[in-house]
Amino acid sequence: MHQNDGVSFTSSSSLKIPLPSSLLSPSQTLASQLAGTCHLAFQLIDSLRIRSNYVKDHSTPSCTVSTQSVLGSGSNVTASPLFCSASLSLASEKHGTGRSPSPLLNSASWSLTQQDSTELTHDGHLATAGRVKEERVLVSEVLIRNKDGEELERKELEMEALTALKACGANSALTTREVQEDVDRIIDSGYFSSCTPVAVDSRDDIKLVFQVEPNQDFHALVCEGANVLPSKFLEDAFRDRHGKVINLKRLDEVISSINGWYMDRGLFGLVSGVDIVPGGIIRLKVSEAEVNDISVRFLDRKTVEPTKGKTKPDTILRQLTTKKGQVYSMLQGKRDVDTVSTMGLGNVSILPQPAGDGKVDLIMNVVERPTGRFSAGAGISSGITSDPLSGLFGSFAYSERNFLGKNQKLNVSLEKGQIDSTFRINYTDPWIEGNDKRTSRTVTLQNSRTSGTLVHGSQQDNSSLSIGRVTAGVEFSRPLRPKWSGTAGLFFQRAGARDEKGNPIIKDFYGSPLTASGKPYDNMLLAKLESIYTGSGNKGSSMFAMNVEQGLPVMPDWLYFNRVNARASKGVKLGPARLLLRLSGGHVVGNFPPHEAFAIGGTNSVRGYKEGAVGSGRSYVVGTSEVSLKLLGPVQGVIFADYGHDLWSGPNVPGNPAGARNKRGSGYGYGIGVRMDSPFGLLRLEYAFSDRFSKRLHFALGQPK
């Protein structure tokens, strides 16, 4: 954001601006206010010396002094004993009467005392001795005049001063304290830089005159040091004040609003200087704490003392959105801490330290925890069409979340069941070095064996077949725009069917081919593109994903096909319940193996059917609607309905495996279920009915796909 180094509402030449009175030292504040009124104080002191000498020579209770009337005419006045001694002082916030005026406002005080003896000290102050007794004096009239004793040119300023008075009025008996309080009130109105109370005592009455000095008219504003404060904010704050008398109270409110603007945004900034210079120019100086340096400090988990860390500092620093030279924001710092915390390195905090010249150093404290671990678990495969318990498998894995100290992920896992088995090695770099788009890279090597019954079903001779795949590839992912991400990858895959003994086979019991090439294995090079919209990321929020895979015939016998798959979901809140709608569909063209056809039916498709029992085709569409309601604690109840169709594409699959097994190609199911959040994920237990009057119990882990 551009620096506001010349905000002005006139065509005057360039102006400047520094320090609010709230930040000035008392001596500096007094000096600026005292300059215009000190000569009045000395005149009054000289007058009091004459009056004091007169009192010493005349023991009468009143004194007559020949002096200059504040109205400009010479006269002999008979002063009341109450007015025989007076001292004028200017008090800053620290030297006030116990009140808390605005930091920008200084108050002038008029103290009147009756004294037994008075002497002028070497520093020009009056010293009094004896017993002080406050008396009331009847004032016949109260006037507002300028410092020369003349009427104010602007009657509205006179009204402001009169309105500020509380105790002083015509025909009122006043004490010195009441006069002092009204002086403070005139100053606190914000329109005047000084106020001097003067008592004019004639033979008939006493008049109280407040000699005030109005502030200058506002003509221009200059602001220094505001690099992030919008110019429009300053323009809006001062636009309606142009050509009017500067009101220090209003100016103090504007300064508070500027400081509030920084505070609301978590920025380290404030108005550090204010000055009003001749010509009605307000000079503001804003201090913004720029980030001077950012460093990482590793702390020992036990002693909390600095230690050597495993993670490379650059790996952490590149995650930060806070950069050197920008104004430090506490909100941005908190987001940076959250970002680094998601890396899983340990506990993270940020500590600002003053660096001089109004700058700040940021120290990111990191308490690392072990990032490598072994784990074991169990699960249920969704591809088992017989007894669900036969789909149980166990898993064992080792993961390292900070490989080579660069926050890279290395996972080695093994899953083994009665039918399914998978061995996988994943290496992920969540942010490729030198890339400014936060692109990640994942390298995968996998050897898997899964049930082939999704498409080919159980064999008539009660034998089973499995699909073996060896896959190796790399994919790149990056954010595309808010809530959108994209993935591109290239994979080589070799896939084929095997019987129960692990021997390669090319046809099933019905004589349908199991490979596209007619060989025991199909080779394919797949180019993958995927785009995902995640909405808010909460459960039941909107989601859309589209995946495209293209088989590249690099070699003559490698498969050539194109597959498109899309899925979407939308959650809608219905009072205490939530409606979730899901829709998925896909299509494949070209030469592809039958086991890659879209299978319809099962736990994550059409419930009430076995896995793949509705049909399998080149195309498909599946729709689901669910209404869930929280029952007790983490337990939810759900009512659901599913429908799936192969869009009459089953016969187009090589060998027509769906037709050979009398699959209808369409069907629906409905039912009820309960779900519960657990340390293992979402537990789902659902009881469903199909349109073919069959009943089936489904159990699964994780969100429906």
TrEMBL record:
Domain Bacterial surface antigen (D15) intervals: 402-703
Subcellular location: Plastid, Chloroplast outer membrane
Claim: RNA-binding is one of the keywords in the record: no
The keyword Protein transport belongs to this UniProt entry's keyword annotation: no
Main location, first listed in the record: plastid
Gene3D superfamilies the UniProt entry points to: membrane protein fhac (3.10.20.310), membrane protein fhac: a member of the omp85/tpsb transporter family (2.40.160.50)
InterPro entries: Bac_surfAg_D15 (IPR000184), D15-like (IPR039910)
Keywords carried by this UniProt record: Membrane, Plastid, Plastid outer membrane
PANTHER family noted in UniProt: OUTER ENVELOPE PROTEIN 80, CHLOROPLASTIC (PTHR12815:SF32), SORTING AND ASSEMBLY MACHINERY SAMM50 PROTEIN FAMILY MEMBER (PTHR12815)
Name of the protein in question: Bacterial surface antigen (D15) domain-containing protein
Native source species: Hibiscus sabdariffa (roselle)
